[in-house]
Write a structure and sequence with these properties.
22 strands, eight-stranded parallel β-sheet, 19 helices, 535 residues, five-stranded antiparallel β-sheet, alpha/beta
């Protein structure tokens, strides 16, 4: 099988969370026809692939990541005919569709699990059912909180759920489970999807002697088997694995240059600071060191994914930048320039390209099961204001508020009652205004996509940090075949001086987040620019 990495290096992915993208039926939930209605917008942005979070039949206890039928489109999103139409129209506009594969677990409403509960031993073996003795010797805490073992009284057995109790872990050591998974993937590939994003794929092989739920001994064996049975048999497919626990060595195996596993992977070290999720905050020195490690460590050995946010992470500007009104636009542009000129495949999460931000939450508004569980537990021992502050900063609900299309009712997302609250910022932050303003964040993203496609240096260059000890700026240099690209980004709300900018010769500023570029050693608040220098 040929190496496909070269053809993937200029691709840019746009992630769609369908529930919150665009509603065409008035039921308050986004749908496939809503995506179709906005294909012209996505074509204008210039992205290549559209990653859809799950649209399969699901009770939605975890917003679609609890799948009851992998072969059916959930009726809330539309029909298979709608999906076929989306595939066709996206391809007509030069965009492919990536499906989200949840292979670690199914909904407890899946027919397999229902048969397992009815006593069918064959289907009990599809899942991780264990007796009391095993469970007591292997304690596991759910990622969503509480015990990960759920007791089924009439069976005298427990089943494993690393997430919500309605999401039962599959047993990938069972050949039949793997065969059924590959059969399902080939169904979608034959339909014409261009690839997959794999949810928590590092959890399909577990280390029971240490009660570790990821990076088991057969992990890479199973992934390579899956690749050979499915997407490696199709031309120009793109795959990305979600791997929260990956270190560099695992990452290089996942995204090796021979393309035997995935095109690329998601790693999350740059999103995790602090002792736990809810008390995390950004440390610039650590952030720079993490990016340096992955940029250097993967160069010519694997392939990075470049992202700040997704459906599980808060809004990029609120997390990494400054969402105050006077700085939101320039900060958002600066973050985009900083990330998109690194090596790897960039991902744009819906609304990121217009600068959407976090919002404050109260218990009654929350939809995220993880945030609800955290609030209900933490509020008993901590100050409620601090708990709500943490939820505003980190909750997944921040990413799931509807896209703000215009300043009309419900931000133009729906004529009905939205399934989740609309962020009140839509009056000032929306697609309509962004498209009309040629200096908006949208056009910065559009220009960065163009730069990636035409500059070999961005796709293939080396990476070196500039002034790694600075707590004020994040700057680096890329180099390829005698050409250099310097990226300077002020990460503060104050003017700073960067001495390394003074000696650049024969330079060309290829992009900046200020309209009036002043070439000296000073950078204004959150100012970022990329300077090309010929050798």
């Amino acid at each position: 099988m040929k190496n496909k990495k070269k053809s993937l290096k200029d691709k840019v992915i746009y992630q769609i969370y369908p529930m919150s993208f665009m509603d065409t039926t008035g039921n308050g939930m986004g749908d496939i026809n809503g995506i179709i209605s906005k294909l012209d917008y996505l074509e204008k942005l210039g992205v290549d692939l559209l990653w859809l979070t799950p649209i399969y039949n699901s009770p939605k206890n975890d917003n679609g990541y609890d799948i009851a039928d992998y072969y059916q489109i959930d009726s809330d999103f539309g029909t298979m005919e709608d999906f076929d139409k989306l595939l066709f129209q996206a391809e007509e506009k030069g965009m492919g569709i990536l499906m989200d594969i949840v292979a670690n677990h199914t909904s407890t409403e899946h027919i397999w699990f229902e048969k397992a509960l009815a006593g069918d031993k064959k289907y009990q073996d599809y899942y991780v059912f264990r007796d009391k003795e095993f469970v007591e010797a292997h304690p596991v805490t759910s990622i969503f909180g509480g015990d990960a073992w759920e007791y089924i009284e009439n069976l005298y057995l427990y089943y494993l759920h690393n997430f919500d109790k309605t999401q039962a872990d599959l047993d990938w050591d069972n050949d039949k489970v793997r065969e059924e998974t590959y059969k399902m993937m080939n169904f979608w590939l034959k339909k014409g999807v261009k690839g997959f994003r794999f949810d928590v794929i590092d959890m399909i092989s577990k280390v029971w002697e240490r009660c570790e739920m990821s990076n088991g001994p057969k992990l890479h064996e199973y992934i390579e088997e899956m690749a050979n049975a499915t997407y490696r048999n199709y031309e120009d497919t793109f795959t990305v694995g979600e791997t929260w626990s990956a270190d560099l060595e695992h990452a290089k195996k996942y995204s090796n240059l021979n393309n035997t596993e995935f095109s690329t992977i998601f790693t999350f070290e740059h999103t995790m600071f602090g002792p736990d999720k809810w008390s995390t905050s950004i440390d610039l020195l650590k952030l720079k060191a993490i990016f340096e490690k992955w940029q250097k460590g993967m160069h010519n050995k694997g392939w990075n994914s470049l992202f700040y946010n997704n459906h599980d992470l808060p809004r990029a500007i609120s997390r990494f930048g400054d969402d105050r009104e006077e700085f939101r636009e320039v900060s958002g542009k600066g973050l985009a320039i900083l990330l998109h000129l690194m090596e790897g495949t960039p991902y744009i999460y819906q609304g990121e390209e217009i600068g959407m931000i976090n919002r404050p939450w109260v218990r009654e508004e929350m939809q995220d099961v993880e945030a609800i569980n955290y609030f209900d537990t933490a509020v008993k021992i901590e100050d409620e204001k601090e708990v709500l502050k943490n939820i505003k900063n980190i909750s997944r609900d921040n990413a799931r508020t509807p896209i703000q299309w215009d300043d009309s009712k419900n931000a133009g997302f729906t004529d009905g009652k939205p399934w989740i609250v609309v962020n009140e910022s839509y009056k000032k932050i929306n697609v309509k205004d962004a498209l009309e303003d040629k200096n908006s964040i949208f056009y910065t993203y559009k220009e960065l996509i163009k730069i990636r496609k035409k500059m070999e240096l961005v796709k293939n260059g080396t990476f070196d940090l500039i002034d790694r000890e600075s707590k004020e700026h994040f700057s680096y240099m890329r180099e390829y075949k005698g050409e250099k690209l310097y990226v300077f980004a002020n990460m503060t709300d104050k003017e700073i001086v960067i001495s390394e900018m003074k000696d650049l010769k024969g330079e060309e500023i290829i992009i900046s987040n200020y309209n009036d570029v002043i070439r000296n050693r000073k950078l204004r608040p959150y100012e970022a620019m990329a300077i090309k220098v010929k050798g």
